[in-house]
Amino acid sequence: MRTCLTRRCVLLAMPLLASPLAWAHGFRAGDLRVDHPYALPTRPGLSTGAVYFRGIRNTGASADRLLSATTPVAAGVEIHQMQMQGEVMRMRAVPALELPAGATVPLRHGSPDGHHLMLRDLKAPLRDGDRFPVTLTFERAGVLEVMVWVQTPRGPSDKAEREHAH
Ligand SMILES: [Cu+2]
Fold first, then answer.
1. Pick the residue with more confidence: 111 or 42?
2. Does the reported pTM lie above 0.70?
C-alpha cells in the first residue's frame, strides 16, 4: 500500500523556493511519511552512492524502525550513520534506523550526525535528473517503494558532501 503525494508536496513546497530541495515528492506507508528521497550525482568510476531524505516522519503512537532497503541500481544497500571523530567525519553501518513515535527523523546530506542509505556496487553512475526506485522495509509499516530523485544540491552542504567518501 503506497501513495505518492507528489502534487500535494509540490504545492506545500512552493513557499520554500529558496530551499535547495524546493521541488519535493513524498510517499507514505501506515503512519510513516517518507519525504523527498534524493541522491547526489556520482562521479564516473565511483562504485558507491548515497540516498538521503528530507525526513521520515512517524505520525503514529508507536515507534517504528527502518530495517533494510534494496534497489535495482546497486548490488546492496546499507543503513549508515555519520559520526564526527575528532576532526574527521566517518560513517558506520547500523542494523536499523530508529523512527520514534511522533517524531521526524531528518536524513539530509551533510548532516554531521545524520544517516543515509549507502548504495554499494552501483551498476552505473547516478546522473542528475535520473529517477530510481528503492524498496524500504519497516518493522511496523511494512514494505514501501519510493522513487529517488538524483539532483545536484545548491546549498551550504555541498562541501561536506564532496568530502563524503565511502
Ligand atoms: Cu555511507
1. 42
2. yes
Q: What is the pLDDT of residue 12?
A: 41
CA of 56 to the centre of ligand 1 (A): 18
The CATH number of the domain holding residue 107 is 2.60.40.1890
CA 100 to ligand 1 center in whole angstroms: 22
What is the number of domains present in the chain?
A: 1
Please compute the mean of the pLDDT values over residues 123-133 and round it to a whole number. Answer: 96
Domain span at 90: 3-162
Distance 143 CA to ligand 1 centre (A): 22
**Cα 117 to averaged position of ligand 1 atoms, centre (Å):** 7
CA of 15 to the centre of ligand 1 (A): 31
Phi, psi of 119 (to 5 degrees): -95, 125
Q: Average pLDDT for residues 126-146, to the nearest whole number?
A: 97
Sign of the CA dihedral 72, 81, 48, 34?
A: positive
Longest dimension (CA), the chain: 44
